[in-house]
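So, can you check this one?
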Amino acid sequence: MSFHRYCTIALTAGVVFVAGCSSNTAPAASTNKSTTTAAQKPNANTTFNSPSLMASSPSSSSPAQSGGKKPSLEQALAEAPKQDPSLKSLDTAYQAAAMALKANPTSKSLQKAFTDAAYAYGSKIEYGSSLGTVVRYRASLCVYQAALKVNPNDPKCKKEADQIIAIYQEMNEQVPS
């Protein structure tokens, strides 16, 4: 494993751990104060008492996540542009590329357009969105896997999908499918 990939996985696992330690419910009586950095600054409703490493942040709870149930990849992808409006334009481009490819699945140019749109959307979800951890990783993995169904050799989507899978495996979490 390259040093860069190791650092990326370690950093991401740290962020996932911190995000996973947040919960919407406060403990009955708590005198513990959590130390946070500026990057981990909680909002007024955040406490650090949840044992789940893959729980989402309080601001990203959705009906699919209530009761501890995690959304499927497709549910997370549908939630992403609802929870972060900055994703809507990339979602629209991704959906348009998918529709065009469905109309002409053998077109190499449409296959490339789809994988390019998928990578742009997936990387924005993964790295540039305000989504909670669960939705972020599941939605981006869904997009990367869709691109890999069209072109299994796409190096960018493969690298990102493999990285997300490695994070789940490193945390002993089942990789969502």
Observations:
- The radius of gyration is 17 Å.
- Helices lie at 3-20, 73-83, 88-103, 108-128, 133-150, 155-170.
- Residues 3-8, 10-66 have pLDDT under 50 and may be disordered.
